[in-house]
Amino acid sequence: MAFQADVVYRYDGSFEGFLSCVFESFLRKEIPFAIYPDRAAWPTLFPIRRVPTDPARAARVFDSFEKKLGTRTRDLVTRAFLNDSPDKELTLLRFLHFAYGQGPRAPWMQGHERVAPVLALEKAVNGEAHLLTGFVRFEQRGGALGAVIQPRHFVLPLLRQHFCNRYPGEDFVIWDKTHRAVLAVQAGRAEYLELATDPDLPPPDEEEARFQAMWRAFYDALAIPARSNPNLRRSHCPKRYWACMTELRDQL
After folding, report:
1. Most exposed of 86, 111, 171, 239 (fewest Cβ within 10 Å)?
2. What count of other Cβ atoms lies within 10 Å of the Cβ of residue 209?
3. At what angle do helices 88-102 and 116-135 cross, to 10 degrees?
4. SS3 assignment, position 107
5. Separation CA 13–CA 82 (nearest Å)
6. Do 68 and 8 lie in a common domain?
7. Each residue's pLDDT tens digit, 179-213
8. DSSP-based three-state secondary structure for 50
9. Residue where a domain terminates, one of 84, 107, 126
10. Is 10 left (phi over 0), alpha (psi -120 to 50) or beta?
11. pTM score, two decimals?
12. What are 135's strand-pairing partners?
C-alpha cells in the first residue's frame, strides 16, 4: 500500500513523462505531495525529485493499462491527461493506485472519490473537443487552409480524426494558440508540432476576405432582434471562443 510522501515530483510535462512518474510512484510505494511539469513554476517547501522521462518504463505502464485495467481505463487516463487542470497528474496517480487494486471495474465506480475527479477531467476535455468541431473556422491565408483556436485544454489530438474525415484529401493546419501547438495535415499524413513562439500568420487572401464579409452579412441577416437572447447565445457558444470565429470576433 502506498504512503503519502513529503516530496514533489517534477517532470517534462509529456504523457511519457507522466507515465514515468507513475512507475516511480509504484516503485517506491509512495504518493507524492504534488506532481509539477517543468513549465509550472509554483513554489514549494517540500523537496523536489526530478523524474526523468524513461520510454521503456512509460511503455510498461501504458501496456499494463489495457492488460490489467481494461480499455476503458486506458482511454480514460489518456483523455483526462489532455485536461489543463493544475492538479491533473496527482488526481490521475491517485486514481491509478486505486484502479490497480480494483481491476477493470474501477472506472465504472463513478461515485468513488478517486474515480469521480478523473471522470470530470475527461468530461471537460470531451466537451470542449465536441464544441470545437463546430466552432473551428478555416481561412485561406497565403494560399493555405488554416484555423486558429484558443482552447482551455489540449484537444488537438481529438480534433484530428473529425477534420480529416470532414476534409478528405485536403491539406490544412490548425494552430492551437493556447498551447503553441500545431496540427498539420499534408498528403494524408497528420503531424503535431510544438512552437517556441507564435507564428507570423499572413493576412487572409483577398478572395477569403470577400467570403468572410459575405458570411458575416448572412449571419447578421438571419438575426431576429426581437428574439435576441445574449445569455442563451453565450451558453451555446461561450464567449471565449468568439475571438477565433469569423462572425463573432467583431462583437468582443
Report:
1. 111
2. 13
3. 120
4. helix
5. 11
6. yes
7. 999 999 988 889 998 888 888 888 889 999 999 99
8. strand
9. 126
10. beta
11. 0.91
12. none
